[in-house]
Automatic annotation (TrEMBL):
One cellular component (GO) term of this entry: cytoplasm
This protein's name: 4-hydroxy-tetrahydrodipicolinate reductase
Oligomer and partners: Homotetramer.
Segments crossing the lipid bilayer: none
Species annotation: Acetobacter tropicalis
Positions contributing to (S)-2,3,4,5-tetrahydrodipicolinate binding: H151, G160, T161
Gene that this polypeptide is encoded by: dapB
Record's keyword annotation contains S-adenosyl-L-methionine: no
Length: 264
């Protein structure tokens, strides 16, 4: 399939990222198949004859790939609709429950899915490096802290990207993040636990996204940093993932697959 014949649908087309996706899909030469919105009749600024629906099933029926940056509560019905229509899925929603994650994995038996907490190539590489450092630097000697800062409107903390970075470190160390995560320290917390992966979240202004992961020993500190200057980087990466995932066999993939990174 050529780029110009790839039909990309956008879930949440009226949102901030949705509007950027509209621009990036067109810039990439793909067909903007349509979108979904809570109020389909109120979406402005779209090219003529681009349909907007209130349901995913209608969009899935006319799309080769759907890019979805909506909400966790939509994941289960979206997974069902996309699997039913055989439509590939680029999913950027984070904070999924066990039930919602199970719905994504079930859909991946039928369709190809790229799921990422962050579609920035830079963040993807930070996660890979964090995993490598987690494997190489012993938890008994190196304390790990993940710091993130976002705009004042962000409602969840730590960010999905921060958790993904922490998960990468935990994978490198061969442990489950849930067993070593420390977040929101306050008051008399006692000494830091050996092997803990700490998280700190800051909010203010209109910062798009800042993430740092620090490996600190008694003798040195190594810091990996990423700064997003524009939300467009997420849209650009998601469109790249859409071109990559279309035509792939069913399965669950990440941005490291899109970038062609070898498995560790």
């Amino acid at each position: 399939m050529t780029e110009k014949s790839l039909r990309i649908g956008i879930a949440g087309i009226s949102g901030r990222v949705g509007q950027l996706l509209v621009e990036e899909v067109q810039a990439a030469g793909a067909i903007l198949a349509g979108g979904t919105a809570r109020k389909p009749g109120g979406v402005v600024g779209l090219p003529e004859n681009v349909p907007v629906f209130s349901d995913m099933a209608s969009l899935a029926a006319i799309s080769d790939v759907v890019i979805d940056f909506t909400h966790a509560e939509t994941v289960v019905p979206h997974a069902q609709s996309l699997a039913q229509h055989g439509t590939a899925w680029v999913l950027g929603t984070t904070g999924l429950s066990a039930e919602q994650s199970a719905a994504v994995y079930k859909a991946a038996q039928t369709i190809a899915i790229v799921h990422a907490a962050n579609f920035s190539p830079g963040v993807t590489l930070v996660q890979r490096l964090a995993q490598m450092m987690g494997r190489a630097l012993p938890a008994e000697s190196y304390d790990v802290e993940v710091l993130e800062m976002h705009h004042r409107q962000k409602v969840d903390a730590p960010s999905g990207t921060a958790l993904a970075i922490g998960e990468a470190v935990a994978q490198g160390r061969g442990v489950a993040l849930v067993d070593v995560k420390e977040s929101g320290r306050d008051g008399h917390t006692g000494p830091r636990k050996t092997g803990a992966i700490g998280f700190a979240a800051l909010r203010g202004g209109q910062i798009v996204g800042e993430h740092d992961v620090l490996f600190t020993s008694a003798d040195e500190q190594i810091t990996l940093s990423h700064r997003a200057f524009d939300r467009r980087i997420f849209a650009t990466g998601a469109v790249r993932a859409a071109f990559w995932v279309e035509g792939h066999a069913p399965g669950y993939f990440g941005m490291e697959d899109v970038l062609g990174l070898p498995p560790l």
